Amino acid sequence: MKLLGAEEVAKHNKKDNVWVIIHDKVYDLTKFLPEHPGGQKIIMKYAGKDATKAFAPIHPPDIIARFLPPEVCLGQIDKQSLAAQPKVESAEEKQIRLAHEAKPSLSEMYNSFDFESVAKNVLSPAAWAYYSSGSDDEVTMRENHNAFHRIWMRPRVLVNVKDVDTTTTMLGTKVDFPLYITATALAKLGHPEGETVLTKGAAMNNIIYMVPTLASCSFDEIMDAAAPGQVNWLQLYVNADRQVSKQFVQHAEKRGVKGLFITVDAPQLGRREKDMRQKYEEEAPDEIERTNTQVNRNAGAARAISNFIDPSLTWEDVAWFRSITNMPILIKGVQTAEDAVLAAKAGLQGVVLSNHGGRQLDFAPSAIEILAEVMDALRAEQLDKNFEVYVDGGIRRGSDIFKAIALGAKGVGIGRPAIYAMSTYGVSGVDHLLNLFKTELEMVMRLMGVRSLSEINRNMVDIRNIKDHFVANPTDYLAHHAYDQPVPRGKLPSKL
Amino acid sequence: MKLLGAEEVAKHNKKDNVWVIIHDKVYDLTKFLPEHPGGQKIIMKYAGKDATKAFAPIHPPDIIARFLPPEVCLGQIDKQSLAAQPKVESAEEKQIRLAHEAKPSLSEMYNSFDFESVAKNVLSPAAWAYYSSGSDDEVTMRENHNAFHRIWMRPRVLVNVKDVDTTTTMLGTKVDFPLYITATALAKLGHPEGETVLTKGAAMNNIIYMVPTLASCSFDEIMDAAAPGQVNWLQLYVNADRQVSKQFVQHAEKRGVKGLFITVDAPQLGRREKDMRQKYEEEAPDEIERTNTQVNRNAGAARAISNFIDPSLTWEDVAWFRSITNMPILIKGVQTAEDAVLAAKAGLQGVVLSNHGGRQLDFAPSAIEILAEVMDALRAEQLDKNFEVYVDGGIRRGSDIFKAIALGAKGVGIGRPAIYAMSTYGVSGVDHLLNLFKTELEMVMRLMGVRSLSEINRNMVDIRNIKDHFVANPTDYLAHHAYDQPVPRGKLPSKL
Amino acid sequence: MKLLGAEEVAKHNKKDNVWVIIHDKVYDLTKFLPEHPGGQKIIMKYAGKDATKAFAPIHPPDIIARFLPPEVCLGQIDKQSLAAQPKVESAEEKQIRLAHEAKPSLSEMYNSFDFESVAKNVLSPAAWAYYSSGSDDEVTMRENHNAFHRIWMRPRVLVNVKDVDTTTTMLGTKVDFPLYITATALAKLGHPEGETVLTKGAAMNNIIYMVPTLASCSFDEIMDAAAPGQVNWLQLYVNADRQVSKQFVQHAEKRGVKGLFITVDAPQLGRREKDMRQKYEEEAPDEIERTNTQVNRNAGAARAISNFIDPSLTWEDVAWFRSITNMPILIKGVQTAEDAVLAAKAGLQGVVLSNHGGRQLDFAPSAIEILAEVMDALRAEQLDKNFEVYVDGGIRRGSDIFKAIALGAKGVGIGRPAIYAMSTYGVSGVDHLLNLFKTELEMVMRLMGVRSLSEINRNMVDIRNIKDHFVANPTDYLAHHAYDQPVPRGKLPSKL
Amino acid sequence: MKLLGAEEVAKHNKKDNVWVIIHDKVYDLTKFLPEHPGGQKIIMKYAGKDATKAFAPIHPPDIIARFLPPEVCLGQIDKQSLAAQPKVESAEEKQIRLAHEAKPSLSEMYNSFDFESVAKNVLSPAAWAYYSSGSDDEVTMRENHNAFHRIWMRPRVLVNVKDVDTTTTMLGTKVDFPLYITATALAKLGHPEGETVLTKGAAMNNIIYMVPTLASCSFDEIMDAAAPGQVNWLQLYVNADRQVSKQFVQHAEKRGVKGLFITVDAPQLGRREKDMRQKYEEEAPDEIERTNTQVNRNAGAARAISNFIDPSLTWEDVAWFRSITNMPILIKGVQTAEDAVLAAKAGLQGVVLSNHGGRQLDFAPSAIEILAEVMDALRAEQLDKNFEVYVDGGIRRGSDIFKAIALGAKGVGIGRPAIYAMSTYGVSGVDHLLNLFKTELEMVMRLMGVRSLSEINRNMVDIRNIKDHFVANPTDYLAHHAYDQPVPRGKLPSKL
Question: Are residues A343 and A262 in the same domain?
């Protein structure tokens, strides 16, 4: 393959002649330019330059080979010539570097919120927008954690809780505590080593990691990073071309994956407006007329990656999946008791109650809200044996895990907290976060008077208001403005 | 007709000798000055000048001819002499022009709230006050959208939602999706082309526009702007002089209008205090003593236009309306199940559940709150067949449309969102807004697991708290001030 | 009586020799100084000077004659010598004068909240603290209006509401609308003419004024200010010395008072901490050590006036009151259905449901909250005929009056709104405020589809949540800080 | 014992040679340095100096003697040499001194919140963090007082309340009103005289003080400070070594303690993150790499003191406690009706419903919330006689005491309010605070129409919402930003 110099590549930086370097290869994207789903602007930003850092997090490594004709690849870049070029730090890169330098010590991270707050500072705007956004008004996204606040505890005393055991099994795998890292896309937006960071963190705490279809790393890279004997699960977006899915699933099974989780809550991606706005900001050049309505409507990182989810998937496809794999199959994204019962009747091994982290349908209920009624419905039809119910969404404290277990969950998944820990402190961050969750869970169990997960039951929580959605009357601003708030004594005089 | 020069007109600018130019005609308003319902101040502002821009949005075009003697019209203005006069841009005009220049691209408008936020900047204070105000403390106005937040979704999965059909019929007309633009007065306050903008936007999306009685454009101007085959409806304020209403209705029917909506929630106009205050600001000159209590109590744009609504209208008038037209007749402004049942028994074709956009009675319930009980009451009396129930008020998201359909509505009306889109981006704005609503509705249907409106039913929404009005206890300010809020790690040092 | 010059009086300004001028008389208060319930400080502030302005609002005119020996009165002040003295405007007086000059025109007052907001500026700190304060955390004070927000409307349409009649009778007196001005103490704190302003305002609107025991004006001054034929009521604090009360009641009856309202919710005055703090501010001189704990605990205007309320009053006293007067007797301050029933059984003519404007027991319920259950209890015992139930507390809108009537009240009382209107714009202010209430009530009746008070019934309001007291869970600050709020498009760039 | 000079001690200030002065003795802590549970940093801060002020509040006086070999004590400090050394006021000490000088007069303290607000200013950061912190998100800590806001009053009128009697008995002791000061650790953090201040304050008001196991003063110092005949209780953390507990309990009984309260809600200390953060701030030197994750995870004052609480304590231990003492035994920290019943069945004299001031399990219910159901459960099993139920947590007003009595409590405990009063104004502060509570309670009783505690019953309070935990829907920020709040007339122009 031809070796090309960085200087030569740099000359091809016009719309009618665009070369870019990706993963050490040089491509001529001139013809592809107008067809790029993510817009021309972002390609032109890297015209004549190395685009790998921007390309890698949001494209599968093999996408060019699969979708563009071989002749667009002009050759190999001469790495030495590339290294010789002066590095210029952009304002955004500088901002991120300084934020990383200024971030608190990992020991000061006392809870999952701390990681989120740090992530807000150290992530690139594109990564923050992609990870932090929810759909529409983000009501469901915030409801996910809020719903746990509607569940109160009923602690018992004078139980010998010297020794507390948090271990359990999930689909037959013994784990240290009932939490797994759920599948989230595009980990390289937050960390250059992407999903491998999450796998390693999971291994360090003997819990399971669910590998995503839309990973930034290739599936095998992730599996290769796993510790000996580490169990992973696979999250699957079903492709309209079932052969693609079949190959993927069977390859995963061969590599030792122990559970298949088919996502069913995303026949269409939700509108994540923060992500859309961020993308727009990046795309819209100052010189474009602000009133020009012809700017391509751009849909953020989220939409750029999801051309491969089949909206016609139905219950009838379940049998086919059963035929291609021996892994336990669960569906992820169930949001009603009715569908949980259908899943059990369809012979699946379980469900994940989930609203996709509040990224799909706004006003979808939180998993924890519907958990109790799901368990009741399964029990009523005697379908609760050998059927595992997981929940994800809004898990931020050890007490959230306890509440989910009390209401019948086999375990809980976390998404954003792990992503934020990864993005801020890498593997150590993920390890620390998981340790916090486990430590908090142990404390809650001890203070609740239970010694093992099997001792936890529904009577230990008060769910009287779990299904209530309180919307306050609109504020009475005239009265509010007229009112004279009482102020306590003891405000310091300003001189202090 | 005599031709008069602008210079000549300019001389008549005193209270005892006032000429103004309106729609290219010169009027001597000296005698009318003390009788003007909107006050003398506003006429004197345009004494000797062209008042058309201020006059047009809030007066029907033929009002002078109908109410003033012919001799007040002195002749035609010499347009060339007018054009020769130097234009002076007022501070308000400059502010609005700059706001228009600075507004975001239409592509950045991701939802109906974005249009409202832009409208706040680009509308004249008079227009913003008129459009945005509600009655009294604006509790009902805000409740209208809030009420949708009390309705949560129950999404179903593994349904083939590749193809989603949002079409339906309304009073027999096939439309692209179940939304119409409802009647709102005085469109020229927001856009020089007034209601024709809304008609055109509706046509582009194959939905219905309800033409208002209190339009800024004449009825025929609006109908002339309609696309071939476009269906419009007519909103009617019933005049105490029934012949006026009869002529209007029969003319509309001849022009092809396909539905008559009689407003029944406005026997008196509500107190819209923001509008009243804005009007006062405009009227009260600095030189008036601030303690003078004799300044005429002025009621804003709202009251200036509503001398023609008969407060003595009753159910007995329905038969007469049936006798003068063959159009389907519905009443707009129903707010109880009892009145919906009465409407059905009176042989009407339907009702619009509405509280007039929160502009009439504060603490009136939102339409969406009472929809389910209205449908139940109709069903209980077997009156739900061939009877169409619409709702308006607070529709801001595609999910709001879905919720209304789920609770039994045939369709929903939007008012302010369309007005704001019109005022900010004209026809393109209205088109874009309607497109957003349709796109969001399609997404919601897909994520809910339905393929057509007929598959939507009440079981898909959770309305447990729909009738709850939660008012928080007064804040405990002393405790609040004394409490030390926890702050997460990771606030950036100020140097960044 | 001896005539004394201002210059002579001015010399007596030391603690061991204190003269002050009150109502044109000169008093030697040297011996009384240490016994003054309001503290020495305030007397010394006026040592050698005219103290009338400070004295008048918070003392009955005859208090010195009644409680001090005649020899303290040294003679008459020479008014000319007093007038000759240069007037010095204090900083507080200047602030109030400027606030009055800057206040909005009365025509801009659109609702009762506007008066409150103006009053906050133009009242002296002492007056504002006394009028605006409630007890403890002021939860009940604010709850009083809040509770109306828990009542929603059920408006009916297509009723002929051309003519709306708001008139009614109260204890046999025909009034223009069902509202009276209730008794509040110390009107001169807000206006130099005190309670006469309220009487006059009531007369102008043909409603009733309830004269307070603790008026700043003498009872006869108030009655003398009444219009011919004007009906007043009397509010009574019962004195431990029953003869004092007997004389007062019988004198009032002779002067034509038509109703006796005995206050029963104040066996002890509530802790109004804002008032206490204000009083402290006034008293505590800078030179006192801030850590000195010996400063006399002072209880604000409220406590200075209430040494004459008998805490031993019981139901058995009712018979005695019946024996001394033929006026209808009602008790004011009932807060349970049980006590309303006892009142009816005791042969009283009615009750006022009231918590004393939130100035007594914090967490006492609002009158409107308990109104429905009170009416039910009376009806259950067939005691609701010839028994009138009034409510006060939190009435701020015409809709509040409507709601009270719907739930069974014969009428409503307003306190602070009238005081604020009086304090800001005098008689015109009270007139304007009453006019606003009447206008709003008429509008609400029209929009509710009723033509007279007798057509109003409980079915017209939704009281589902009337008894619910919602306290929000404590805020989740860590999550709150970490969350990134969405911001709509269209914020103007700062240059505009 | 050898006498050592301050100058000599000052030389030993290196890690390999550390002397410190504590309570006038000189210790060589070189070997102990790496084992100090609170970290080396804090010891090195006082290397070569007098560490008494930092040591005393968080260590029992005899801890060195008990845990370190005798040879670490090198001798006595020469006090004169110490006094001769120049005192340097640190920035923190200066800040606290100025805050004390600027604090309001004690007479201005009108309620318990005022003390808290002053304490925020005058306490050292370490003391404030320790006292004010709760566990996790501090939801339960704040819920404790909030829950009282869900209880409303039903006041009765026309009862002779001239004389009101607040006295009662607690475990047989006659007290002036039904409140005691509960056990809280480390009083010397807030006041140099520690727990003796609280004892003295309690004596002045004839109420009971519960002496804590983790006091800063020795148990005997506290008992010695008691007034003649004053009754104290003892709070006990049970040591894994039961002999330690036995000696402590029997010694207390000998010294006249009249009640034993065994804490059962702390088998592990809760995560008090504010305290942890403060500790970290103090420990983490600037020179440590901020990204270094090896800094010892430090747990604040809370964890430094609690190595002696046995997590294996069970119901079976109760019999043993019965065998070693004749004091009444109660358990403190009961949080369910089930455990209250078990306590009664185990022959205990009562329980304290408590969640440890919100410092242990977040989302544990408040004592007041569960009180009614606890009483019902006891009554149902006829266990409510001779069994006293106390509550603590969130008592801030006299009305809170009333509510607890109405729901069945024998009395209430206060913790933080007393600590804040002690820390701000010493004994006078505690006296004043207790006086406020008593005064408020008397007022509430009078306004409720009761003359003695025995007249108070459950029917006097409305607990309809006591068990409701309302969590508001997430805010609709887009709508919120777009809305134009109404502003009342009467804002002053800026010139005023």
Answer: yes
